[in-house]
Automatic annotation (TrEMBL):
<keyword id="KW-1133">Transmembrane helix</keyword>
<keyword id="KW-0175">Coiled coil</keyword>
<dbReference type="InterPro" id="IPR011645">
    <property type="entry name" value="HNOB_dom_associated"/>
</dbReference>
<keyword id="KW-0472">Membrane</keyword>
<dbReference type="GO" id="GO:0016020">
    <property type="term" value="C:membrane"/>
</dbReference>
<keyword id="KW-0812">Transmembrane</keyword>
<keyword id="KW-0547">Nucleotide-binding</keyword>
<keyword id="KW-0456">Lyase</keyword>
<protein>
    <recommendedName>
        <fullName>guanylate cyclase</fullName>
        <ecNumber>4.6.1.2</ecNumber>
    </recommendedName>
</protein>
<dbReference type="Pfam" id="PF00211">
    <property type="entry name" value="Guanylate_cyc"/>
</dbReference>
<feature type="domain" description="Guanylate cyclase">
    <location>
        <begin position="114"/>
        <end position="245"/>
    </location>
</feature>
<dbReference type="InterPro" id="IPR001054">
    <property type="entry name" value="A/G_cyclase"/>
</dbReference>
<feature type="coiled-coil region">
    <location>
        <begin position="20"/>
        <end position="89"/>
    </location>
</feature>
<dbReference type="GO" id="GO:0000166">
    <property type="term" value="F:nucleotide binding"/>
</dbReference>
<dbReference type="GO" id="GO:0035556">
    <property type="term" value="P:intracellular signal transduction"/>
</dbReference>
<dbReference type="GO" id="GO:0004383">
    <property type="term" value="F:guanylate cyclase activity"/>
</dbReference>
<dbReference type="Pfam" id="PF07701">
    <property type="entry name" value="HNOBA"/>
</dbReference>
Amino acid sequence: MQRDTDRSGPPSGEDPAREIRLLEKRLRKANLRRAELEHLMDASHAFQRNIINEIEAARAEVERKSRELEALNASLQKEKARTDQLLRSIMPEGVAEELKTTGRVAPRRVDSATVMFADFVSFSESTERLDPVVLVGMLDHYYSAFDQIISRHGVEKVKTIGDAYMCVAGAQDDEQGHARRMLSAAREILMFVRDSRANPSRTSTSAWDIRIGLNSGPLSSGVVGHERLSYDIWGNTVNTAARVVKASAVNTITLSESTRAAVGDDPALRSLGRVEAKGIGNVAIFRFAI
């Protein structure tokens, strides 16, 4: 009997259905792994996007804070400049720098300085008849000009007391020449007052007369107060200057003997003799002719 060797189908021992199931199983695993990989990739991309968004947000916040700091710094610098200007307006620049650097000002005493008082004549009567706005405007007109004048001559403003303008030269350095510098400033102040009287329209009302008195000698200076700082000078030299201005004629400059000696010989100086200064005694005075 002949053996049938012409059978069709898979080799002996192979099951096509089983092979298909294995392939389908592998395919499902591959699909599952691909899905897991895609999920991981999506999660990674989302994470990266979140990181990038956070970085961008942080960068934007840093830039915003930087702009705020720049604006704050600009504001602080502006306020610092205003504070510096305020300090320089109420005390000499050297004193203001010492105060900013150390937080205090050491009292000073010099052997020779020159003090000037400039008093407006009939000021009290003006305060009674002038509108307050007009009065303040006139004071500002004169005192602002006085500030500019003394600055040009190296003289330091001390303070204003109503109608009295007080300044000093040599209180910080005790250098020679302070009397001559003060006299030059006084002359320019008097010329300004005379010009204001000749052109009253510049002050928008009637102008004032003035008396100017100078005295030289030793004095002390310093800053007093805590909440409200005040630069001031003290000593008999200051008191004598206040008496000299009272003896001055209207629209003239009067010097004490000590200032005349510090200025030196000048043909414009004329002796007026001696006057009684309350609490001080007789004081020799001189008029500086302009």
